[in-house]
Design a protein that fits this description.
By secondary structure, chain A is an all-beta fold. Chain A has no helices and eleven strands. In chain A, a hairpin with a 5-residue loop joins β5 and β6. Chain A starts with a strand and ends with a strand. The chains are: A mainly beta, B mainly beta. Chains A and B meet through β5, β9 and β10 of A and β5 of B.
């Protein structure tokens, strides 16, 4: 079955750029049936959807983070990536990647496969 | 953005109890509402999508209902493994906002 695995530095300095990669195994990232999402969860808090990418490269970002977020896809490696610039302590969180079911002509989207998450701490 | 509000924020219950968690949207979202379960230190797990469709492999004691702005997640008979935090999420419009979570604890 499809599995997702996040990877990247666990510690980032303030004002720098957070970079994470999600590797998809057991299935193709080029399937038109899915979008590929990033979600984060600050310590002790709820979930925040960051954005998603389609295999074609089209993206949508949460407006609250849009100015700092870039999500990209590498179909040859079956990976997608997150970059978040100008980080502060408020960006400290567990970052998850997830497979987002494509509702097609309807907004029937749901995240049915998740990575285990990776903790990123922003600190000098 | 659509705001999602869950109630209660926390709930104590016993094994075997019937439990209902409510999620309210700030505007109509038709039936585009998902429910996730999250255990400590783990990723969220999809339980219900499109308000009432049970995700494959999820026990039938979980059910969802509602449309428009008001939705419920019901666990018909609590099992020990059900003690967790539950989140609703709307997919009607991006960004797909989540509720603040409901922590279900053992009484």
């Amino acid at each position: 079955q499809v599995q997702l695995q996040e990877s990247g530095p666990g510690l980032v300095k303030p004002s720098q750029t957070l970079s994470l990669t999600c590797t998809v195994s057991g299935g193709s990232i080029s399937s038109g049936d899915y979008y590929w999402s990033w979600i984060r969860q600050p310590p002790g808090k709820g979930l925040e959807w960051i954005g998603y990418i389609y295999y074609s490269g089209s993206t949508y970002y949460n407006p609250s983070l849009k100015s700092r977020v870039t999500i990209s896809v590498d179909t040859s490696k079956n990976q997608f990536s997150l970059k978040l610039s100008s980080v502060t302590a408020a960006d400290t969180a567990v970052y998850y990647c997830a497979r987002d079911h494509n509702g097609g002509s309807t907004p029937n989207y749901y995240m049915d496969v998740w990575g285990k998450g990776t903790t990123v701490t922003v600190s000098s | 953005d659509i705001q999602m509000t869950q109630s209660p924020s926390s709930l104590s219950a016993s094994v075997g109890d019937r439990v209902t968690i409510t999620c309210r949207a700030s505007q109509s979202i038709s039936s585009y509402l998902n429910w996730y379960q999250q255990k400590p230190g783990k990723a969220p797990k999809l339980l219900i999508y499109a308000a009432s469709s049970l995700q494959s492999g999820v026990p039938s004691r979980f059910s969802g209902s509602g449309s428009g702005t008001d939705f419920t997640l019901t666990i018909s008979s609590l099992q020990p493994e059900d003690f967790a935090t539950y989140y609703c999420q709307q997919s009607y419009s991006t960004p797909g906002s989540f509720g603040q979570g409901t922590k279900l604890e053992i009484k």
